# Entry
Amino acid sequence: MNAESVERKKTPRIVIIGGGFGGLYAAKELMHQPVSVTLLDRTNHHLFQPLLYQVATAGLSPGDIAQPIRHILKEAKNIEIVMEEVARIDGAQKLVITERKPIPYDYLIVAAGARHSYFGHSEWEQFAPGLKSLEDAIELRRRILEAFEFAEIAEDPDERKKALTFVVVGAGPTGVEMAGAIAELAHRSLADDFHHVNPRDARIILVDAAPRVLPAFEAKLSDSARKQLEQLQVEVRTGVMVKDVGPDGVHVGDELISTRTIVWAAGNAASPLAKSLGAELDRAGRVTVNEDLTIAGHPEVFVIGDMALFTHQTGQPLPGVCPVAMQMGRHAAKNILAASEGNPMTRFRYNDKGQMATIGRNRAVADLKVVGFGGFFAWLAWLFIHLIFLIGFRNRIAVFFQWMWAYVTYSRGARLIYGVFRPGRMPEPNSK
Amino acid sequence: MNAESVERKKTPRIVIIGGGFGGLYAAKELMHQPVSVTLLDRTNHHLFQPLLYQVATAGLSPGDIAQPIRHILKEAKNIEIVMEEVARIDGAQKLVITERKPIPYDYLIVAAGARHSYFGHSEWEQFAPGLKSLEDAIELRRRILEAFEFAEIAEDPDERKKALTFVVVGAGPTGVEMAGAIAELAHRSLADDFHHVNPRDARIILVDAAPRVLPAFEAKLSDSARKQLEQLQVEVRTGVMVKDVGPDGVHVGDELISTRTIVWAAGNAASPLAKSLGAELDRAGRVTVNEDLTIAGHPEVFVIGDMALFTHQTGQPLPGVCPVAMQMGRHAAKNILAASEGNPMTRFRYNDKGQMATIGRNRAVADLKVVGFGGFFAWLAWLFIHLIFLIGFRNRIAVFFQWMWAYVTYSRGARLIYGVFRPGRMPEPNSK
# Structure
């Protein structure tokens, strides 16, 4: 024991908070290195968030896009995985505080991600859940599928119309993907399964205050995305403000869109853990980081991924997307290895290979920097890249199989309603 | 409209309560017949219950063993599917009462199944959930996987030992399957994923008051099952009574088995809907049915599946297994078609093709009437028959793929912890 604790003292202790892309890629870089790593996550799984919208729209099962973190890192004998929620960080004492016991660190990587933000209207959440976790996706799937069940038994035509109206707030990649997927679900997969309603009558409305969809893409691709959405009969309403959200629906400008199913894809707020660091935060709760990804006054604390506000490269914050988190994770890990050997840290530079968003079967936009394109080839590129990055060989086969199946049959494999995960469920029929 | 309502009057209205094997097979028999059918279920899916234990032990995903009822019966234009919970049955008025509105019937098929029973100790449920629904399976999966996570961070050796002890109460097919699957999960799939505990140390204890496991099988097969369980290092304790269940564990005889994970597979109670029929019930809440599956005084009401007490064939009640429910469903439907054409109903006879239970990889027992056997070939037979009966071609491929994968790699594809579905979760760490 004594020899071991002496040995321990010399080995740098690194704590990583969060097993998303940032935390996982940092851990992979630190694997088999002469450091002792503890990775904390409140769930037991790494989630492939870019495909979460497919769980929410019954295309994939939760197990297809999530893998136990413990299993991904099973070869890493120097990495301990702990399933536990972090309460706060004590930067002065270099301690991560959990319910169980404080965990000391020499270096800390904070990669706890973001939740959705309601711009000060947290009471909207119960009516318009967002899409960040598996629980979120299963809850949205339940709401979307139950809306059709409710429409089928509703006798009041207004109630039926309300049940068949779906509003997605926010036309970034998540909003565009959700709107397209709900449209395909309604107009294709469910189209012939009901007696009293025709799911083809479902209205899917995508609203955003910005003047165009996918504002982070170039204007040509925004136009292409809008056209592709309209081919799927999604009503796109840009340049309009959401004023209120409630049990009756969404107030957009002066109009009430009557609906019982609202998806919130409009804003992000960094994990509240950011606050306990005592560093400077922006409006979205992100932590201003230095060029080497550390924070002011704490050269041993790194903040990465959706929680980090990094403006050193372009003057603008880097977007909250997977490649940024992965690259930051790797870079933070390399800087720690360098520092622990007495070498200087290096500055982070994001290698931007472009961005893409899928809109539906055969429909997508891809902005690969050298070339931007929309339609079938963008969709193929999207499919291919997401399969490559999906963690775990088994998941890749399962997802590929389900996609091919969905492509051939237009059906969806995971049309299940179960569970009530959160309060705020509307007091409508079909309660279990 | 008028012609249609005249037409309606002549068409017998049949209501089926429950979309399990009994209800679904009745519906399939009534498909395309000159009758108007309403199938009510409180969920949107038909569940392949025989494989539910594989969801509870992370081998399969919920979507693999469940299909939307609406989708299975999409070709049946004379069958309306309504996702709604039935409150009670008004046999005098011939009405099924739901939250929404009463549904009138000319013929009624009650196939609402069973829940588990705690022999008057309903307070045990929170500590020892059973396995009937997808929610049950996801809850058990969460508890089983969390037990290992908790053992990994526990510092008190007793707490660690408690976390690594799993007790299955009831050694019928479900209990045997659960015990075998937990043993394989612990000793194989999870074996190398932890740092501080060795899942191979997990104790899996199967207890039953009966003198042997699988009491419905012949003694030779019971012995074979017991030996196969012991090869998987399951401790089998038969002939012992469970006296109490609580947060500390299970009291068996004079002994407390300290555990935080208990699976209840000991008893069944028919759906409480049986009560509202006003018919004679047995201790398990089952309704005594006539030889034609109707109930006393109500030749228009059929009770089938796990809810029915049918003793006319052998003097003993028929077991609560899928083939009984399927055959009863078909027979009730045929009797309704006969009666509606003025023909006499026929008596039901169960065509017993045998029974089987799986114990693990390569391990099972099969009692096929002409021949009974255990081991690899029983396991192959089990695998084959379950694939055949699994509803839906897509599910069959997905399940086959996952089984083959699990067989080759010993890994499990659905090791996810999420959601809290019911109260009674123990106040331990790892809460989300």
